[in-house]
Amino acid sequence: MTISVSAADIDDKALLEELIRWVEIETPSQDAAAVNRLADHVEKLAKAAELTVERLPGTLGLGDILSVRSPRAEGSNEKTVLILAHLDTVHAHGVIAKQLPLKRDGDKLYGPGIYDMKSGALMALEALKIAVAKGSRMPIDLVFVPDEEIGSLSSRAYMEKLAANAGYTLVVEPARDGGKIVIARKGVAMYDVTIRGRASHAGTRPQDGRSAIRAAARLVLDLEALNDAERGVTVTVGTIHGGTGRNTVPAECRLVVDVRVPDDTAAREITGKIEVMKPVDPDITFEITGQMNRPPFAQSEDGVKLFDAAAEIAAELGITLEGVVTGGGSDGNFTAALGVPTLDGLGADGAGAHTFDEHIFVSSLAPRTALLANLMMSLEPK
Predict the structure, then answer these.
(1) Active site: which residues (predicted)?
(2) pLDDT at position 80, please?
(3) How many domains does the chain have?
(4) Looking at the predicted structure, is the pLDDT value of residue 70 above 90?
(5) Do 64 and 77 touch, CB atoms closer than 8 A?
(6) Which of 73, 145, 180, 214 is the most exposed place for a label (fewest CB within 10 A)?
(7) Longest C-alpha distance within the chain, in Å?
(8) Alpha-carbon distance 320 to 213, whole Å?
């Protein structure tokens, strides 16, 4: 394979300047107006490049979905290359001013959301522009969603609709551990548990009470007992809140539970066990709500071929591409579960996702944008 675009063909200075603009627009997932401000900017850039743009109004109080497409004949039903990106971040407003200012230190550029994943989202747009200018073998759909960081509840159906006609999916989540890309991800389930008992005075009538916190303590141990490092199953009680005061037997307690599973078999087993858990005390009740949020993303045979194609392009660009399996979920879980060959972690290299140390390596922008562009152009219908 001979590449069409090299890192030298990427205007990394202009790319970096544009990335700073994106990061300066803070986009907490729950602030629809803030996310839409960045969507407005991206939409202008896409239209200026004469790309086809469709914007779907937000639902569930969240931001809009922005779909950017390569030109194609009206009514075309050709298989597409689907690119998934998100504009929201986990960071609240004011983080740039207080905890994580935009600053450069050598090859590192710091900023909220710069690694996860505004750099990857911008790289995808730039790569799409290049692929359209030079010619791609398949139509390309690039989708910017507003809510990936909180589970993609408002955007999942739209992504799955596009995936039904996709030959491949490329996800521009950040690279891992020095530039590795993601070939598989664990499935993610989320549960909220409310334990209800009976309040009483802790000093004068303790025998009348039924402690929700004591029942919660037992439940935490039962949940944590489902962990299985050998199989790759993790069950974590992330928060616990309960009680009304020091001298009151607590009538209520709430748990938030995170579950990660490597495959469909483990998903059915572990979620099945959690959803039927019962209290020992008949005067205590459990209310367990939740489900699988993202199905397991296992690497398929076609996924292996997709990785091999990307690795061949990367080698021509001087990049040694390695694949990793991660416990974190992404929108790639949805497309992989539908049988679409999916490759993830194609964004910028860096570190510190979701922390006040979040940064990218500036030197990764141009070569990895070239990788994306060449991959978009080279993929062809199966």
Answers:
(1) 88, 148 (proton acceptor)
(2) 97
(3) 2
(4) yes
(5) no
(6) 73
(7) 82
(8) 52
Helix and strand totals (H; E) in the chain: 10, 18
Is the pLDDT at 2 greater than 80? The verdict is no
88 is catalytic: yes
Q: Which of 148, 173, 263, 344 is catalytic?
A: 148
User: What pLDDT shows up at residue 128?
Assistant: 98
1 within a domain of the structure (yes/no): no
Q: Which of 26, 31, 88, 358 is catalytic?
A: 88
- Respond yes or no: is residue 148 known to be catalytic: yes
pLDDT tens, residue by residue, 71-128: 986 767 899 999 999 999 999 999 999 999 999 999 999 999 999 999 999 999 999 9
Q: Which two tokens stand for residue 254?
A: 């709430």
For residues 350 and 236, membership in a common domain is answered with: no
**Distance from C-alpha of 344 to C-alpha of 141, rounded to nearest angstrom:** 16
CATH assignment at residue 169? 3.40.630.10
The rounded distance, in Å, linking the Cα atoms of 185 and 372 is 20
In whole angstroms, what is the distance from residue 251 CA to residue 15 CA? Answer: 56
Token readout for 250 is: 């607590």
Reduced 3-state DSSP string for 98-143: HCCCCEEECCEEECCCHHHHHHHHHHHHHHHHHHHHHCCCCCEEEE
